[in-house]
TrEMBL record:
Residues 193-588 form the UvrD-like helicase ATP-binding domain. PROSITE patterns: UVRD_HELICASE_ATP_BIND. The keyword ATP-binding applies. The lineage of its organism: Bacteria, Bacillati, Actinomycetota, Actinomycetes, Propionibacteriales. The keyword Hydrolase applies. It comes from Nocardioides salarius. Keywords: ATP-binding, Helicase, Hydrolase, Nucleotide-binding. ATP binds at residues 214-221. Pfam families: UvrD-helicase. Coiled coil: none annotated. This is DNA polymerase III delta prime subunit.
């Protein structure tokens, strides 16, 4: 037996060395390609010194192409070559090597096939039942440029015998090796271990909506990210020009996934949490569930529509002027009719250039005196437009408005009651008023909650852009209505011009309100989106293709039918392609059996995938702990000592600060939890080295850890109407060890 093991190890070492030689050749070509791209960039800069416009155009084009190629080559270094296909000799006598990008040698012969290319599809689609001319599929496991091992699958034993090919079979399967690896603080690509059902979703038609469903741990998120990379590869001009928007539940989640696409050679993507979808806004704080349920409801769209039509608080309700022999009056009733007339013709801010003329019309109709009529309308307009009193009235009665300012009007309970009458109950109005009581006059960013952002976006669309003055806009420029400290450009906020990118890497250029900036929209944890969030995201994908990822059983939104209607409206008219993933690759079978039993016990209609990996370690349940801190400390230290990767401590939201303080005081975790003082909440990012982190149940969405300690699970369940679904999510986050402390 020892001799057989030694022989196997020798054979594995020989095959690893053989693959290393080929990988070295590929990396040498990668260096040459990088040098060529750098040279192209230098040449491009030199073209810009030619002194004519053509040289500048050539410079921009060359530098852009070179920069994109350099970024692609730099991103590909980690695990550049990961696969090999040995095909039937009659189809291809040479092995095909599969990698993160495509590379050719100096003779233009293929060294490496991009994993998204049609020639690489068989790497993922071939099975023992349908080998598709593949005899052996090999996965190369690497640490940077160094090959550390190989894992083989023999797919066609009969063809191996018929051809007499010398193809030794090494290892126990690449997938299981990948599943056993320790987790760190970021998601990694699965490009080397994509399974057939996952590959079908990745390579689905580019048009319409691709919906990817399945229970916990089936790889929905990472499959969707690989799909984004695949779309960019197959139609780069469309998706790079239009942009790809990826929306996730939280900043924590977005930081977790942000390395996947660059590792696949893609950077032309905007990664945004739900609090960052609106350009220039970054909200991280969440409302309490009772408040969030009201702000997310579809009927809030009507509340916002009414709010956008309200007169600015403190604005004038009447205007009087003596002209020749007449007293001209714009009273409350007349102004109300004019307001309704303007509102019926378009968004509020879009009417700014029309306001002076409409008011002058209403005043001119009141001129009855002979002296006034004799002078005529042109003279009348000139006289009033030279009257500072009239100009001040126009500016005060119909000012340019931005969405943050108007949202802050809801601090006034009377305004809220007026716009919510017949739409929201008195109790719903009360909880909203309380949540907005301390809102500043111009809230933006940290002053807003994640649930406020869709309301802000709804207001931006209801109000419209503030028109910018141009020389040929005589109606504004000649009247000087907005001069004297009231220039449109000065009063516009970032929300009404064009926002700068929200700080998330790889964001494409921003756009005006009515633009449809994205060619593809990817929504992860879609089951959690509120109707108002669906409206917000839908505006950014009216003509886009979509990838929608979710599991209804994990939903934190309490009215799924209402959300489904909003989702249908956002994707209306688009063909639907549905894919269901059925294999749980994350959890051990012991952990998932525990989570599935909970789901069945509390009546969740859960999609229960099959867990393919067993550790032999059952979840541990600590009940009735007399000293909660001591019990949690023992559980966390135990898990941190037994796993090599990350440990998540999941707590009720009300206990987050308390448990953070505990971890900071435990000397056993000094090295593992340096960032526990900051912890993971919805706004703080711990350092990349922290192994032990504190999260709430909602923070865990989309994440995974080697070990999970759940503190007071009943309290997590009791936090909201959907607390049972949240706790189910928490119980499915661990890959190896799970402990609950009651």
């Amino acid at each position: 037996m020892k001799g057989m093991r030694a022989l196997t190890e020798d054979l594995a070492a020989q095959e690893t060395a053989r693959e290393q030689a080929y990988v070295d050749k590929v990396y040498a070509q990668l260096s040459l390609s990088s040098a060529a791209a750098q040279a192209l960039a230098r040449e491009g800069h030199d073209r810009g010194r030619l002194g004519h416009e053509g040289g500048l155009v050539e410079r921009d084009a060359m530098v852009f192409q070179a920069a994109r190629r350099i970024a692609q080559l730099d991103a590909a270094h980690e695990g550049l070559v990961f696969g090999r296909l040995d095909l039937h000799p009659g189809l291809d006598p040479q092995p095909r090597y599969i990698g993160r990008i495509g590379l050719r040698d100096a003779e233009r012969d293929s060294l490496l096939i991009d994993w998204r290319a049609p020639a690489a599809a068989v790497f993922y689609q071939a099975t023992a039942a349908t080998p598709q001319q593949v005899i052996r599929r090999r996965v190369l496991r690497s640490d940077g440029p160094r090959v550390v091992g190989v894992e083989d699958e023999l797919l066609d034993a009969e063809a191996l015998e018929e051809t007499g090919a010398d193809l030794p079979i090494i290892g126990e399967g690449a997938l299981m090796a990948q599943l056993s690896r320790a987790r760190d603080r970021t998601m990694h690509s699965i490009v080397a271990t994509i399974q057939a059902e996952q590959d079908q979703a990745i390579r689905a038609p580019s048009k319409g909506v691709v919906a990817i469903s399945g229970g916990p741990g089936v790889g929905k998120t990472v499959v969707a990210l690989h799909r984004a990379a695949y779309l960019l590869y197959t139609d780069r001009r469309r998706y790079e020009t239009g942009g790809v928007l990826i929306v996730g539940p939280s900043g924590v989640f977005m930081r977790y996934i942000e390395r996947v696409l660059p590792s696949l050679g893609e950077t032309a993507v905007a990664l945004r949490s739900l609090g960052e979808v609106v350009d220039g806004v970054r909200a991280t704080r969440h409302d309490d569930p009772s408040v969030a349920d009201v702000k997310g409801a579809a009927r809030m769209a009507e509340v916002v529509r009414r709010l956008a039509r309200q007169q600015a608080p403190g604005g004038p309700s009447e205007f009087r002027v003596f002209y020749r022999d007449d007293v001209l009056v714009l009273d409350r009733g007349l102004l109300g009719r004019i307001r309704r007339q303007l509102m019926s013709q378009g968004r509020r801010n879009r009417q700014l250039p029309r306001v002076p003329g409409v008011l002058l019309d209403a005043l001119w109709r009141q001129v009855r005196g002979e002296r006034g009529r004799e002078r005529g309308r042109a003279s009348f307009d000139d006289d009033l437009l030279g009257d500072q009193k009239f100009l001040d009235f126009v500016t005060a009665w119909w000012p340019p408005l931005d969405a943050p300012t108007v949202l802050a009007w809801l601090r006034d309970p009377e305004v809220l009651a007026r716009v919510a009458e017949g739409v929201l109950s008195s109790e719903e109005q009360r909880v909203l008023a309380k949540s907005w009581a301390d809102l500043p006059e111009h809230p933006l960013g940290r002053d807003l909650t994640v649930q406020d952002v869709p309301l802000l976006d709804e207001l931006r669309y209801a109000l419209g852009d503030v028109p910018e003055r141009t020389d040929d806009e005589a109606s504004l420029a000649d009247t000087s209505l907005l001069e004297g400290g009231h220039d449109v450009a000065e009063l516009m906020t970032a929300a009404d011009r064009e926002y700068a990118p929200s700080g998330r890497a790889w964001a494409p250029p921003t756009h005006k309100i009515d633009d449809d900036p994205f060619a593809h929209v990817l929504i992860d944890e879609a089951q959690d989106l509120t109707p108002m969030q669906w409206r917000m995201v839908g505006r950014r994908g009216r003509t886009a293709s979509w990838t929608i990822v979710g599991d209804p059983a994990q939903s934190s939104w309490p009215v799924p039918d209402e959300a489904a209607a909003a989702r249908a409206e956002a994707t209306e008219g688009k063909a639907l392609h549905e894919f269901h993933l059925s294999t749980n690759y994350r959890n051990s079978s012991e952990i998932y059996a525990h989570a599935a039993a909970y789901a069945e016990r509390v009546g969740l209609d859960a999609d229960l995938p099959t867990a393919v990996r067993s550790t032999g370690v059952e979840p541990r349940v600590v009940e009735d702990a007399p000293d909660l801190e001591a019990a949690v400390r023992e559980a966390v230290v135990d898990l941190a000592g037994r796993v090599a990767g990350t440990v998540g401590v999941v707590v009720p939201a009300a206990r987050r600060s308390e448990v953070n303080a505990w971890l900071a005081s435990w000397p056993e975790l000094a090295d593992d939890a340096k960032g526990a003082r900051a912890a993971i909440d919805s706004s703080v990012t711990p350092s990349g080295e922290d192994r032990v982190v504190v999260l709430t149940g909602l923070d865990t969405k989309g994440l995974e850890f080697d070990g999970i300690v759940v503190v007071r699970p009943q309290e997590i369940e009791d936090e909201s109407q959907t607390g049972r679904a949240t706790l189910y999510v928490v119980l499915t986050r661990a890959t190896q060890l799970l402990t609950t402390v009651s």
